[in-house]
Amino acid sequence: MATKNTDTPTRDADRTRQAILHAAQQIFAEKGFAEAGVRDITALAGVNPSLVSRYFGGKLKLFEAALDAALNTRMMTDLPKESFGKAIMARFADDDDRVSPLPMMFSAASDSEARAVAQRLLRERVFEPLKHWFGGKDADVKAARFMMVSLGFFAYRDQLPLAEFAGRVEPGLRRWLEREFQAIVDD
Fold first, then answer.
1. pTM of the predicted protein model
2. What is the C-alpha separation between 113 and 119, in angstroms, rounded?
């Protein structure tokens, strides 16, 4: 007697949900929250628009899920503190496959609900884990410093591109950033 594979619908649902999330990240980053349409997202994902409601509950919840998926604090906190500066710059400057959450966060600023979601996720998923990872009495200051320097890097690489950030980061600038990131850990 053959057994029926009951994992197929779950795998299909997971693949569909991931396709919607990936498309949402691209569309929210490209068009911004206000201009992004559910139909744009589902067309890119190749799925029926009704699936956004089914899997996410609407556009705002989809934005939250897409941004949450892009905020990967472990890419920072799993690095050794002794070589953090070099390691974080390698991840930031050399990892082109990663979805940058910055365009989604910038675009959320014009919508009060999306901005509130972005601020909450930034605190919960980035600031608090970094503060815990840094530890000590100045952990909140270190987390804030890290966020300011990294925001500047990504803003001038992705949003307001400077030639020095295009392609491989200019070596002198890269060394300076490595030292700045390391100093945050070491101070």
1. 0.83
2. 10
Calpha distance 181→47 (Å, rounded) = 42
Which residue shows structure tokens 């952990």?
Answer: 139
Per-residue pLDDT tens digits for 86-127: 999 998 888 666 777 888 998 888 899 999 999 999 999 999
Name which of 17, 22, 130 is nearest 67 in CA terms.
22
d(CA 66, CA 152): 22
Structural tokens at position 187: 């101070």
pLDDT of 20 higher than 90: yes
Distance, in Å, from the CA atom of 49 to the CA atom of 39, rounded to the nearest integer, reads 6
Of 137, 127, 129, 130, give the one whose Cα is nearest residue 105. 127
